[in-house]
Amino acid sequence: MTKQTGTHQKWMKLDNAAKIYPAAKRRNWKALFRLSATLTEDVDPAVLEEAQRSTLARFPGFALKLKRGLFWYFLEHNEGGPMVRPDGPYPCAPMDFKENGGFMFRVLYHEKRIAVEIFHVLTDGTGGLCFLKTLVAEYLRIKYGADIPRDNEILDCSQPPDPEETEDAYLKYARDVGRSRREPNSYYIPGTTEADGLIHVVTGQIPAFDVLSRAKAKGVSLTEYLTAALIMAVDKLQRQRVKNEKRLKPVKVCVPINLRSFYPTRTLRNFASYVNPGIDPRYGVYSFDEVLSAVHHYMRSEVTEKLLNAKFSTNVRTETRKALRLTPLFIKNIAMKLTFYAVGDRKSSTSISNLGAVNLPDEMARYVTRMDFILGPLSRNKVVCGAMTYQGTLVLNFLRTIKESEVEREFFRYLVRLGIPVKVESNARW
Hints:
By secondary structure, this protein is an alpha+beta fold. About 35% of the residues lie in helices and about 25% in strands. The protein has two domains: about 1-175, Chloramphenicol Acetyltransferase (2-Layer Sandwich); about 200-315 and about 330-425, 2-Layer Sandwich (Chloramphenicol Acetyltransferase), CATH 3.30.559.
């Protein structure tokens, strides 16, 4: 439900996916992610500030602050906008909403880079990418007079917002039949937590054709290929630490799924699900082809409209139960925290989120040299990976909150062993 005043969202319910994050957040952790574009010239902060104001007016679903009600958190219209700031020493640092004017996103710049960091309550990667692309288009329009074509991925800021862009698609498309969320816990990647909150980022740049051609030759998707390689890396590390095969645990990778592929919605709020493909190492040592086959068949069987619908419908049905609706928020928070830790991060060892190939119109692409997606740290899993392809280059950003770089090191080494060239850069010790 949304109450509107003019083009503004006066208040809005949280979508089904967003409800868990206010309950699960902590002072030093919020579910953030980052998207960035690197330009051909240094960023002009004053122009970026103007571009943000123009973009935010077109995205009322971002001009919101989180409010605590008696029974649920809700979103309320927030005036103005956050200050455009220089980027910090590392991405996805904890966000203080109060210091940020109540806003749950921030726009950052460093030399040639424009970045946005977003709390998952507002949107998912697809919605965030739309915001970033529109922001950069506005910046280029103001700075250079660039005449950039607008579409559903680069919005026209001179036009009023479309109400469909803020719809709760989970609620709209949920059915009456759900499915169990039970599955075995996964191997937990150990490590030494950085005492000062330092976040490491290790980036691998890969010619997209080299990976795609190998994936195609195996009859699998790019995401399936990368997921299998990541499973192989984590499986090897677990076997090095756990010598008793009977004590080995499943190695699973959380893979987000964009539900817009299945439903005709234009929502810019959260509308994604996930699957956890993996292997059970207790059954023996797996070859890469065996892991690849397991991932491929799991994905093809699980990533269907009916099964994904049943998964998110289970959550929607739970949310709409009268007894739960009337339960005070402080009790809901306890229950949701327990649920988050029970059926969330524990079910996977790590996560890889691939936003796919980003295409920009020529009028815009001439100014943009690189695009990046960085998935913020999960509550329990301290190593995660965000992927994006732009202008023929696949960029894989591993983010971790532990000192040890074993996972990404082994992953990139494994790709090299498969014959795939990798250029590595890092803000950490490598």
